[in-house]
Amino acid sequence: MNVKGIHHVSALTANAQENYRFYTEVIGMRLVKKTVNQDDTSVYHLFYGDEKGNPGTELTFFEIPMAAQAHQGVSSISSIGLRVKNDAALEFWKDRFDKLGVKHEGIQTRSGKKYLDFEDPEGQRLSFVSDEKNAGVKAGIPWDRSPVSQEKGATGLGPVRLTVRKPESTVRVLTEILGFKETDRKYPSSVEGQPDVRVFEAGEGGNGAEVHLEERTDLPPERMGRGAVHHVAFRVDDEAELKQWVSRINELQIPNSGFVDRFYFRSLYFREPNGILFELATDGPGFDTDESLDSLGESLALPPFFESKRKEIEAGLKPLDTKTK
């Protein structure tokens, strides 16, 4: 058993309304599910993705009102990649960010591909990565009602960067347990005196299946808060395979969540030795299980096991207008 690539990445926001505005109006992603954190139903869980939230396109946020600003450090998921069709799309985004006042760097080449690094209003670190020279895991299809054209829009998740102090223990989990393979495409650290960043890929490979591993000896542990990433999820086929993973992780005596039913997918959670939370998630059932494709994300969606508490849950949430204009 090997994972197929990145399923989703989940991060933290302190302001769901502003988060929704940025990721739909500025970045042009589709809100495919407005629901609640299943471990704390008093806060929102927002899922952004391509036209239907296909696996490998989902960037999600837990709203934690009043969350302090995250402090960057090791034992962290320190950057989230978003794929775009080609190099020309990066030029479009650079110009768009200039016009809209979004903090960004210049276009750079790393590991043979072009990147545009930027931050959201809460300091979340992201990168657009060009698929022009990419092969491997298939990209998604941007929503045709996005304010950004399908030619320039985000087509899915790209590489995620893990920043750790002791890389070899993380390498063992990636390669010996999850089935990643190290490539020969390492690239220099952005910090002088630090080791090169190593590139690993799963399944078919490519931008949708890459983990970049950064070793940093000059940083304290990350302090979680708004602008930080909570966990990264990797793709497995279905529930039957996930249950095999549960058995395997248990056999390895790795503390874990056991099988978890998230309704839209099934999950297993565990921490790798540097403390980063990994999830394995199934490709289905999907986000159109309880909503039509045309109206995804417009209303508060609750899994059946929370439906009896809808009135109580809705009463505890601040209204969030996500109706498509």
From TrEMBL:
SUPFAM superfamilies tied to this protein: Glyoxalase/Bleomycin resistance protein/Dihydroxybiphenyl dioxygenase (SSF54593)
Domain of life: Bacteria
One Pfam family, short name: Glyoxalase
Record domain VOC: where: 5-131, 156-283
GO MF terms, alphabetically ordered: dioxygenase activity
Alphabetically ordered keywords of this record: Dioxygenase, Oxidoreductase
Record flagged with keyword Oxidoreductase: yes
CDD domains tied to this protein: PcpA_C_like
Name of this chain's protein: Ring-cleaving dioxygenase
Annotated source species: Alteribacter lacisalsi
Organism taxonomic ancestry: Bacteria, Bacillati, Bacillota, Bacilli, Bacillales
